[in-house]
Design goal:
The complex is a heterodimer.
Chain A (H helix, E strand, L loop, with lengths): L2 H14 L11 E2 L10 H18 L21 E6 L2 E6 L6 E5 L6 E4 L5 E9 L2 E8 L10 E2 L5 E2 L10 E3 L5 E8 L2 E8 L5 E7 L3 E7 L5 E7 L8 E6 L11 E5 L1 E2 L6 E8 L5 E7 L11 E7 L5 E8 L7 E2 L5 E6 L2 E6 L2 E4 L6 E5 L1
Antiparallel strand pairs in A: 2-3, 2-27, 3-4, 5-6, 6-7, 7-8, 7-9, 10-11, 11-12, 12-13, 14-15, 15-16, 16-17, 18-19, 19-20, 20-21, 21-22, 23-24, 24-25, 25-26
Chain B lengths: L7 E2 H6 L1 H5 L8 H36 L2 H17 L10 H25 L14 H4 L1 H11 L3 H11 L5 H8 L3 H19 L4
Helix pairs in contact in B: 3-4, 3-5, 4-5, 5-9, 8-10, 9-10
Classes of the chains: A mainly beta, B mainly alpha.
């Protein structure tokens, strides 16, 4: 347990003592009203409404129904592969909302797309902290093939799969990257999908490594490194996987995660290298403001020449730690507290009211 | 909404399920009787849950909203809402997750109202992290609460559920209505931010 965790538990324990056992008032509730017989049809209708509304009122415990927004823009991917409560599903995004096309057997933790709108990779627990990887292909109608396990064994990852991204597929689908920590070392593992060969870059005590993303050359791997030492700052790095060596910190620092400017200002939580090779898209958390320390979140474009913000900055509804581009680089997926949304051009729209999405890709 | 002073005790309803169901007398149709029995069983389970978890849930709410009176009201309101939905709470084993989620949601509502009050020029000083509380908690612990208060609301919730209630990731996900992966990253980020604010290593 870290010092912070110790202090947190201690403070919670002390504050909890502010409400001593036996000092609380008993529960009282209003009496129920008796319904007159002629109210029955109205009561049935109200009851049905209450069942629908009540599901949401439980507070996200009961998943919201999928809802449709405006139709998806032309040229946007039609299908997504999502992980919902540990299950992989294919959903149709053409109507603006998400409609399930197929559910896959087995349990999975993460999904990555190659950008060809057909080939996807899944990561699933293979026992303990080890993960196995699977490839699947979608037909034009979204029907998936059975997931085929990749050769080459498993990858140990103590940090597990969460957000920001720990899994990324190269655009040509030939390589998978897995970043995280294993046995106290920060690691990036690149898996050759065809042979199952693994190559690992690692370093001890480099903090956390997240936000894996491939450049369009299928060779350079981008990631975000947040140092374990609070006095240092998080940085964006690029690792040339074609060069010899196994030191993760031999990768090039391209910029600090902190962005300062009048238009875009804040901390990069996650980023993707765009297919055009000239830009990256980053989710940036702005400075806290107001009495409740609210923060604004934007999706901003960075030039990969200067690594400075350029072009648009799309306002997001909340803290997502998530951005995934499609193969064209014009459409981005978002997950905000487990709820999927999309960014097309300058607009964010929700894809669903459900908040049980662990991961999603297109 | 405060429910203190209202007329009917939930325990009384448990003792008189037909009164709770609105079915008068003893000549109740069989189906109505079965429904009343189901409701009685659900009410009894809810009462037992309240007795067992009221304290922990009130303390949880205290960590999120900051003051005892609001925390107590939040838990009362959450259970009243559950009681109103008692006919739909058929799986008694699911009541605790529902109750936790209801408490967290009520806390969010309270904080949203406070935000509006602040915008309207009214101030609110929650005592847990106020200067007055330093005497009870000690300055070091107050520092932790002041740092917690600077975190976004969902990160604060995740830390309270993880480090006060000791919930696992799946339980936290269920309570907050978010994915397990999001819980992991939220807790991790929250700890890192907290460590940063406290000038410590995460």
């Amino acid at each position: 347990m870290t010092r912070t965790e110790e202090r947190l538990r201690d403070a919670f324990g002390a504050a909890a003592a502010g409400i001593p056992d036996g000092s609380l008032v008993p529960l009282t509730v209003p009496s129920r009203r008796r319904h007159r017989p002629w109210f029955a049809p109205a009561a049935v209708a109200a009851g049905l409404a209450a069942v629908v509304v009540g599901g949401a009122a439980v507070g996200g415990v009961v998943p919201h129904t999928t809802r449709s927004g405006p139709a998806a823009p032309a040229g946007a991917p039609r299908h997504v592969v999502a992980i919902r409560d540990g299950r992989a599903v294919v959903e149709d995004a053409a109507g603006g909302g998400l409609t399930q096309v197929a559910a896959l057997p087995g349990r999975y933790d993460a999904v990555a797309a190659t950008g060809d709108r057909r080939t996807f990779f899944l990561a699933g627990k293979a026992g303990g902290d080890s993960y196995a990887f699977y490839r699947l292909a979608l037909g034009a109608d979204g029907k998936p093939s059975a997931p085929q396990r990749l050769p080459g064994g498993t990858v140990r990852l103590d940090s597990g799969f969460g957000k920001p991204e720990n899994l990324a597929a190269s655009p040509d689908g030939s390589r998978l990257a897995v970043v995280g920590t294993a046995a106290g070392r920060s690691e990036a593992v690149v898996i050759d999908v065809r042979t199952g060969g693994h190559r690992t870059w690692s370093t001890p005590g480099a903090g956390t490594v997240t936000s894996a993303t491939w450049a369009p050359d299928n060779r350079v791997l981008g990631f975000l490194q947040s140092p374990g030492d609070a006095s240092e700052h998080a940085v964006l790095r690029l690792l040339d996987t074609g060069r010899p060596g196994s030191d993760l910190l031999s990768s090039r620092v391209v910029r600090p995660a902190e962005v300062t400017g009048t238009r875009v200002d804040g901390l990069i939580n996650v980023f993707v290298l765009n297919p055009d090779g000239r830009t990256a898209t980053a989710q940036i958390q702005g400075p806290k403001h107001g009495r409740n320390d609210d923060a604004s979140f934007v999706l901003a474009t960075l030039s990969t020449g200067t690594w400075q913000p350029t072009g648009r900055a799309v306002r997001l509804p909340g803290d997502s730690f998530f951005v995934k581009a499609d193969g064209s680089g014009a459409h981005f997926l978002q997950l905000v507290d487990g709820r999927p949304g999309r960014v097309d051009g300058d607009a964010f729209t929700w894809l669903s009211g459900a908040a049980d999405y662990d991961d999603v890709a297109w | 909404m405060s429910v203190r002073g209202v007329e009917t005790d939930i325990v009384a309803n448990m003792r008189h399920p037909r009164r709770a169901s609105g079915a008068p007398g003893t000549d109740v149709p069989v189906a109505g009787g079965a429904a009343a029995d189901d409701r009685a069983a659900a009410t009894a389970a809810l009462v037992a849950l309240f007795r067992e978890h009221q304290l922990a849930l009130a303390r949880t709410a205290l960590m999120i909203v900051g003051d005892r009176a609001t925390a107590e009201d939040v838990v009362q309101d959450a259970f009243v809402d559950l009681y109103r939905r008692i006919d739909r709470l058929t799986d008694h084993h699911r009541m605790l997750p529902y109750a936790r989620a209801a408490v967290v949601n009520k806390c969010r509502t309270v904080l949203r109202r406070r935000k509006l009050a602040f915008r309207a020029g009214r101030t609110h000083e929650p005592p847990v992290w106020s200067a007055e509380s330093a005497a009870m908690l000690g300055e070091e612990r107050r520092e932790v609460f002041l740092a917690l208060r600077r975190l976004p609301q969902r990160r604060r919730e995740a830390l309270v559920l993880r480090y006060y209630l000791d919930l696992d990731e799946r339980e936290i996900a269920e309570t907050m209505g978010i994915g397990v992966g999001t819980v992991r990253s939220t807790v991790s980020r929250a700890l890192a931010s907290l460590a940063d604010l406290l000038g410590e290593k995460a």
